Amino acid sequence: MAVKWTKEQKKVIDSRNRNLLVSAAAGSGKTAVLVERIIQMISEDEHPIDIDKLLVVTFTNAAAAEMKERIGAAIEDKLIQNPSNPYLHKQLSLLEHAHITTIHSFCLYVLRNYFHLIDLDPSFRIADETELTLLRSDVIKDVLEKHYKLKEDEFLALVESYTTNRSDDPLEEIILKIYTFAQSYPWPKKWLNNQIEPFNVQTIEDLETTQWIKVIDEYIKHTLSDLRNSLCQGIQLCQLTKGPHMYLENLKDDLEQLDAIIQEDGLSGFYKAFNELKFTTLSRKRDKDVDTALREDVKNIRNEVKKTLEKIKTDYFYQEPIDMVEDLNRLMPINQKLIELVLDFMEEYRKAKEEKNILDFNDLEHLALNLLVEEDGQPSMIARELQEQFDEILIDEYQDSNLVQETLLQSVSKVHLGEPNIFMVGDVKQSIYKFRLAKPELFMEKYNTYSTEESAYHRIDLHKNFRSRKEVIESVNYLFYQLMSKEIGDVHYNESTALYNGADFQASEEEDLDYTTEVYILDSQKDIEDVEEDIDLSQREVEAKLIAKRIKELMNPDHPYKVYDKKIERYRPIQYRDIVILLRTVSGWAEVFSDILMEEGIPAYCDTASGYFETTEIKIIMSVLKIIDNPRQDIPLLSVLRSPIIGLTTEELAMIKNSYSESEFYDALMTVLEEPFENHMANKIKNFFIQLKTWQDKVLYTPIHELLLDIYQVTNYYDYAGVMQGGKQRQSNLDMLIEKAQQFEKSSYRGLFHFIRLMDKLEKYQVDFGEASILGENEDLVRIMTIHKSKGLEFPVVFVSALGKPFNKQDIFQSINIHLELGLGPDYINYEQRYKKPTIAKKAIQKKLEIENLSEELRVLYVALTRAKEKLILTGSISSRTTLAKRLEKWSSICNHKNIKLPYNTVLTAGNYLDWILFGLMRHPSAQNLLETIEKNNSIDQNTFTEDVDFYIRALNLEDIVMQDVVEEIEKNKIKDELVNWKYDDVQDKEWMDQINHKLLWEYPYKNEVNVHVKMTVSELKKASMEGEEEIPSIIKQDSEMIKPKFLEESTYLTPAEKGTLMHKVMQYLPLDVLNDYKKIKEGLNELEEKGFISEKEKNVIYIKDILAFSKTKLIHRMLKAKEQNHLYKEKQFVLGLKASELNETYKSDELVLLQGVIDCYFEEEDELVLVDYKTDYITEGNESILIHRYTEQLGYYQKALEQITRKKVKEKIIYSFSLNKEIYM
After folding, report:
1. According to the annotation, is 27 in a ligand binding site?
2. Structure confidence by residue, pLDDT tens digits, 97-131
3. CB 250 within 8 A of CB 280
């Protein structure tokens, strides 16, 4: 069925010969539109383009592969309609080599083709991040060591300012962070050199022209404007009939002072105005006619204004402007030295990589940039060649591009030629990779400048969401209309940027399906009564229980929630796989959530991106490696001693230490081993140290991954981990350690010491692998994942949880803040007098980072909420330091706010996602029940934008969550007691008891056949029938020397089965007419050895006299006669179909069993058959009946097979015994 495109989508697909920016909202089908645009471009009737003339840049390799797959499928669909179209066939063949790729793969393509122009060794490889982590660490230590030797004053001042007495780590981290920031700029050295001059300010006027002051000025003006509106709102409340009129003059005075500050211009003016700011005391007059709630509202407004103004004064006007100038000047030489260190590191790191002939991803970008862009910023000759190669450049997820990528792709476009040909698609509201130095500003610059009309620089907006129900869309719009703005979020969320419903869900036959967005607020400080004292649950556990309770309600087997399945085009009961729990971070949360859900009987899984190094099994094995490298490390040594590998108890460890308190623990253990007495503890220690010495010897020549395998095997720890709780996951983690060791061995580093060092560095710098994934895509369980990982995905039911988790603001409080545009923001540190204070540069960058980080967090929240297709459920906990009532009281002024958009300063004060959710809900009718707790009305009549938007909002406490569990536990214990104390004689209903017994005592009717396979050999049947009987030895005797142990020499011993096979092989290949000649038999055996049919060892154990004895029997004469008539057959294979009941009288089933076997020999005689079977079993004369008994069944199957195959009767069955040298007739 053809896709029905919207008018805007059709425009995107059909527009040509322009720069086109597509602002595609969540769920708007941007990938489908992009693929269709490519398909149309390569298959349109006029001027089609070969697919290898397009450069399609995606964000990940997975996205590139998916896009290729989609395009390939679309081309194949068109070929079905038009199979003779040669152009489509050509596109399909070109697709594999089409430039549908990531930016790094494109850079690699450029370097592979033009390496000779920059003197690059073409055999370079892309280094693994683990190898680069070690290399950077080595290089930076060498750089610092070099400068320590030079003893420069500026360097020593830098060290004193930014290191500790114990380590240079803080300075190393600063250098690496600055280096990383520089790499996101097209010309890193230029950016670094530009960070010195801003500190060269001589006057206050110079300072006021800096970018730092502009940032502060912009923030203050925004905030003052908000505060002015708040004061005006307070004045209006004072003027109401029951308003607090006694506060009116105070607020008017505040407004006058605020207006005076707003009129100020320049740093000195602001400094003076803020330091002269004084607030009058609120009137203490009482008036019984004044509404108490209005009085509290006005007081809250004024307190918030005072608090905000005081904070601005404290943050930015804590010292006179001239002192700010002096601080920056004092820092200039130190900052200059810091930049010199970064440049030095950059050069030494480049040399180290060049020496190893490796590149990292930054190198790919910058080397490609050097090839494509001239120093003046113009495209190079190579770029011009590529401009001719590509007719259009298409960029997916454009909001996540950075300056380097932008410069690269601009250089190979035809924009410089006046022929714009770049297609960009993305959604700045979903730009959530600022931490990777993405620049959503690039998207917004084009968004604000490109025309929505037909033009060479054209913008098309896709607003319709085809993913979610209107209830989800309306909830998202309701919140973000209030929260997201140009200042916070980088987008003015309004009618032109909001989501619009485009999904077509069939109407459900069930009228009670509720798609209302639910909000659950856990108020942990609310008074709790009648809750058992022994309930000890953390906030995270209680929130997890809340989620589990709601999932159980959704999954109720008697009345399950229904979701619409587009594949089957109907509603079906919800499954666990339809549910996802989204978290801002899984660290510290996912394990708690997963454990609680599993306890509640809900299958759950989290594919974490962290926590690998914290797992018990990895900690123990890494400790083993560390003591192999150096046993004099107390923590790893104690870890191994206490672990299941050795199993010493804490009491035993304490006893050892107390006995030798003056010694290091390793020496104490050595002393224990030297003691003359032996006990269980000493033996365990002794055995381990013997093994430790073996490993220490092996490490000199054994690869790390083989050493790990040996540790797993010798200690049995791998198997032990497998039987622990979560054993499969633990073994997968240990397997991953093997993989990491193998990767390490492919790097330029070698040896156990470097591997341990690498793993320590990865843990230190939080380069975590995450626990190994053991989850299949289609498993029916609840997923727990980060919001970042969910981007691009969709789920019927989405829980967005842990909303009360505070925002991570660690990067704002570093000793040096870094910003791509504002540069460096250091503290001024006087190390001689041992004090420090922030510079105005740092304060400006801190505020810029705070606003940018909050903007990013708001976009992350938008991504989370737009993952839901049918049901959105929000959960969060109020911090234990406060209560919901206090939070609502603090924000109560929001209820009187008349504009849809919330004040800038209010949005900026949020400490977590839950704050924003509550900000947005304060004016919604559904929040009235919450506001009643603080005797507040939300003035619903002032807000028309609440129409048709519904929320279910509920505040809960611990009692609400756990009391149901307590009741259920009591009921379970009651039932358990009844069952434990149940007496058989108490049975009242015999009929029910008979039915129960029938069920419990039922036996499978075919239990005797459970070991019967569909296909069996005659030998297997024979063995089954002989079970319990002794094995009959072979007649081939063994020399006494043949019983030497295997470790002394290769054994010449043959098992009875091997001997039987050997004799059958001889009888098969030796001609019958030579069996009466010893010499010819010998020659025949030699020939069989030469041809590889038998080995020398086998040849030497053949007893030739037994073969000669066979040649004297009557049987051989009959066989020779049959041979002359071509009626002799050897080693005849067969497959016979029999009912299972025919195989054994105890079998009841009539299922068909295929029986296969090999008949040694048979011959035709007088139109009937004679069956011959050779046996080597050792039998004494007179015991022929043993063989007859043993092989009657086997030869019976042979007879059935022959008669069925040949349609002739078997008249005789003969066993020839090489032990008795005679025929035995059956």
Report:
1. yes
2. 899 999 999 999 999 999 999 989 999 999 988 88
3. yes
